[in-house]
Amino acid sequence: MTATALLPGLLRSTRRRSVSPTLVLAWVVVAVVILWAIAPGLFTHYSATSGVPQDRLLPPDAQHWFGTDQLGRDQYSRVVHGSIHSLSGAVVAVAVGFVAGSLLGLLAGSLGGLVDIVIGRVVDVLLSVPGLLLSLTVIILLGFGTVHAAIAVGLTSIASFTRLTRSEVVGVRRSDYVEAAFGSGGRRWSVLFRHVLPNSLGPVLALVALQIGTAIIAISTLGFLGYGAPPPTPEWGLLIADGRNYVATSWWLTTYPGIVVVVVVLAANRIGQSLGRRGRQGGSR
Amino acid sequence: MPRYLLGRIGQAVLVLWVAYTVTFVLLQALPGDAVLIKFQGGDINLTPDQLEQVRQTYGADESVLQQYFQSLGRLVTGNLGYSVQHGVPVTKLLAANLPSTVALTALGFVLAVVIAVAVAFLSSLSPFAWLRRLLQAVPALFISVPTFWLGITLIQIFSFKLRLVPVIGGTAAQSLVLPVITLAVPISAPLAQVLIRSIDAVSLQPFVPVLRAKGAGPNWILWRHVGKNALLPALTIAGVLFGELIAGAVVTETVFGRTGIGVLTQDAVNNQDVAVLQAIVLLSALVYVVVNLIVDLLHPLLDPRLSQKVVLAA
């Protein structure tokens, strides 16, 4: 299902039943955070990297919504400017998982046989190692950094994308229109990419939204451990790691960035859940 | 049954072997070199000849294929190689660090199960729709909280604000309280979700109205009949969550400054101590495989219908 194919269904569903308020809120949160990432200047006029020394460690007030840190930098501004790092990291990570996973799933589901078995075993191994340790293995290999952390996180989501795409492909492949496409002389690969893949993608899109939330947490965890973006970057995990040194006196340094992460992840998960529900209702399979 | 058992064990061993091979290939492709990192920086400046000697003692001078088969052979006999950074066998490092991590993860898992069961059962027993909806939202919230931030926030509230748990110098039990909660909360979320869903599914089955018609109360039905039947899917996901426990322990130990596998992992990543990281990855894969094997073997015991199928298939 492509975006244009989703649109009529979306319109129809909003007309049929009342829209859930939490879902609207989730979309608003996501929209605001995306705006933070695109145009941080619209939301704050403070610099994210240079501070005012005499304003250091101020508690939250009308001037500094989230307080200031040990160098007198406005914490709210750092969170706003940091959103680009967390969001782009999560998008890269999910893109890696989505592309690699759905290709592997398509191959396993459509070719079957030995290919299916080998891919199935690789997925077993990917699932048997906890995500964080898998990421650390990739990071020890590639080195520290924002992009490396994103790739490392993406690798951990390949297994679930592969499994889901494979099961969808197996289901779609047996349907009448695919048989008809083969019957009317379609070649294997053209049928796969023009009919099987687009029709298998619906539930996979729901997984994309869910994985974005998971990836934001994973990337901030790597940032917190010091394997992501280098220090002056206001990446969310790094912000919380910095604030940890002042945890006894300046609670705002860790609390506010953390709440932002929780709210964004909640919103992404809520959207993923709604997409998944519609996928299940829409498909008659 | 024996044939099924052998097949499952063979599958488990295969997963471990592939995991080992993949980590070996990945980590051998490293551009850096742990020997160089340890022996060339700082004041120890070794000549190239001396470096070569060090390499020989670690077996780093042989061809990759030779190294692979040698270390695979050693692995079978329980030798996981040497940590270049610490200069001791990896098994020794693991043995020294495992007990505290095992204590943390075991308690964390128990608490996660308690939280999940409490949330799921309370939400299905709750007489009010709003309370039910609130409780059903709890797993969604728990799953969205980063472990490291939860730990820091708990320290903030219970150690610094309320002064209930000392930051340093508490008893062993006191020092475990906050880490165990930190570890348990994110793990409990998927467990609670699955429990809620399977309790809902089981409640729709025809035997529930029959029990109600016979006069059983909702408490009795939930604990004696529905709960028992809802356990099976939860057991399956519990096996998967064991791996997440180890990952959670890495973060939790870092936040609370506890020694254990977590600190060992961070140390290994910082110093490119490949042998140590590989051992930890293999250990977690082993735990995952063994736990899932046990879960699979337990299924027929909990659900007699499954054992009949196995007998028919064998």
UniProtKB/TrEMBL annotation, chain A:
Coiled coil: none annotated. The chain crosses the membrane at residues 26-46, 87-112, 132-156, 204-229, 249-268. Pfam families: BPD_transp_1. It is a multi-pass membrane protein. SUPFAM superfamilies: MetI-like. It is found in: Cell membrane. InterPro entries: BP-dependent_transpt_permease (IPR050366), MetI-like (IPR000515), MetI-like_sf (IPR035906). Residues 83-272 form the ABC transmembrane type-1 domain. This is ABC transporter permease. It comes from Frondihabitans cladoniiphilus. The lineage of its organism: Bacteria, Bacillati, Actinomycetota, Actinomycetes, Micrococcales.
Automatic annotation (TrEMBL), chain B:
Residues 98-299 form the ABC transmembrane type-1 domain. It is a multi-pass membrane protein. It is found in: Cell membrane. It comes from the Bacteria. InterPro entries: BPD_transp_1_N, MetI-like, MetI-like_sf. Its main location: membrane. The chain crosses the membrane at residues 12-30, 102-122, 134-158, 164-187, 230-256, 276-298. Keywords: Cell membrane, Membrane, Transmembrane, Transmembrane helix, Transport. PROSITE patterns: ABC_TM1. Belongs to the binding-protein-dependent transport system permease family. This is ABC transporter permease. It comes from Frondihabitans cladoniiphilus.
